[in-house]
Amino acid sequence: MSKTHYNPYASTNSEEDGGEQAMCGTYFSEDGNETNDKESVTCKKCLNKLEKIDKWKDETEEHILNDMESFVSFCNENIKTQENESI
Ligand SMILES: [Zn+2]
Fold first, then answer.
1. What residues does the ion ligand 1 have nearby, CB within 5 Å?
2. What per-residue confidence (pLDDT) applies to 17?
3. Would the pTM count as exceeding 0.70?
């Protein structure tokens, strides 16, 4: 029987699922599935790790947001410097 693994980024379009490894570390068999619907997860490893995976996801998204903020302020600094130089 095929297992459904948890992936918060799982796409409903199966053609876009490029990974060969589930979030729990299991390699997909040919009939392996991923879902972002926790109710549909049947993989016990994923069920045990649901909270960890969600935490990881939140942390990753926080990092991306932080990086964007520092990137924006970095750009603003550069713009200021250029303005000062041109005066
Ligand atoms: Zn799994």
1. 5, 22, 24, 26, 43, 45-46
2. 53
3. no
